[in-house]
Amino acid sequence: MVPSIRITAANDMPVNARGDFVLYWMTAFRRRDWNFSLQRAVDWAKELGKPLVILEALRCDYHWASDRLHGFILDGMRDNQRHFRETPVFYFPFVEKRKGEGKGLLEKLGSYACLVIADDFPAFFLPRMVRAAARALKVKLEVVDSNGLLPLRATEQVFVTAFSFRRFLQKNLPEHLGQLPAADPLAGAFLPALTALPEAITARWEPAPDAMLKATPECLNALPIDHQVQTAPLRGGSDAARSTLRTFLREKLHPYHMVRNRPDEDGASGLSPFLHFGHISVHQVIADLIEREDWTPERLSVKATGKRVGWWRMDEGAEAFLDQLITWRELGFNMCSKREDYDQFESLPDWAQRDLLDHAGDVRPYVYSLDEFEAASTHDPLWNAAQRQLLLEGRMHNYLRMLWGKKILEWSPSPQDALAVMIELNNKYALDGRDPNSYTGIFWVLGRYDRPWFPQRPVFGKIRYMSSANTMRKVRVEEYLYRYA
After folding, report:
1. pTM higher than 0.90 for the full model?
2. How far apart are CA 395 and CA 401, in angstroms?
3. CATH 1.20.120.1200 fits 345-484, yes or no
4. Number of CB atoms found within 10 A of residue 71's CB
5. Would you list the domain boundaries of the chain?
6. Are the beta carbons of 408 and 463 closer than 8 angstroms?
7. pLDDT, tens digit (0-9, with 9 covering 90-100), for 37-61
């Protein structure tokens, strides 16, 4: 049973009990397992005695659409097609071959449906898309939150520090630890099978052929997307996500707190792209970690201190990872779900806006254009190496991502220009861009979730300062520079 706090009616239309099927419109949680949205759709299909249709569509005109992002999504669609073939679900993958080709598809499918279930994701263009669908559909549209351990609607408060949010989590998470989604929502679900969609659908909107889901260069080149941003070495999909999780838990979890911030060591989990595209659930990550650690909720500390370590009563590596996975990741979801201006300069704390604007006229030691930043053409070898990793691999080392942003702030004509550059480069090239968690990182550079630092500095004011020289004294970067410079 999906907790009611995770279900929201997006319109006032009724359920059409005479419809042909229940429709799950899969947009953010692109997976078969550990998925509250799919679980809700299965519950409705069982209650109504109807088949279940899953529409997973990929448009070509979203901002920053490229071979890299399309390829990663198509990898996941290929996995889903294979996984759902073993079930009574009718899986309908649709890929636009030209702009606007998919217009009207959801509305037409909805005309045959009893109701529509959609994913409740609070960032990028997805909220606008859901609002438009709610106006167009003539049947009930429910959106379901399967984003994190804490439901988005568990609080209306917008948290301004990680400490305050962590303390809130420590008080309120225990009740949600026992409300995880079903590992396999389709297990034991005896649903009627649908053999084909109505001809009025398939005659106009053909399912993506198997060749398209292989995301070959030939297929990607035929699409009207950015071909300059090439596919990344990391492949997408649920199978790759689970393999990455197993490797992390087996080899990297326990030393995580020691090696995560070392650029010369690949100590990060590698899960953020898969979490962003919904190829794996945070609930599965937590469940697998708990099983591996032989941990039970009875070990939780009774005191909500807000401290990073000690509440879970696990070893330091596990606690450090859970703080990143839950506190910092879900802090971004809290902001994006409560403020529509989460990606605007005006969403920064008042003190940070004031400081940045007071120092906007300060002389910059260097000033670079977007094109120069993008091409990794600065005077700083370490910054250039971090940008090259982003260009080549669609990711950047966690610690260097902070330095990357701080230097963009220092070398841009204004803080607003710096914000625009960070958003453009991150969202264009990073596989985990366009996500609440990535906006947390970008805006942390400008003071969000931080505090004033002294002494004041030119350009930064009381915003936390970082330099390549200090970074190179703190952490080893020789191998990193060799690899990416």
Report:
1. yes
2. 9
3. no
4. 25
5. 345-484
6. no
7. 999 999 999 999 999 999 999 999 9
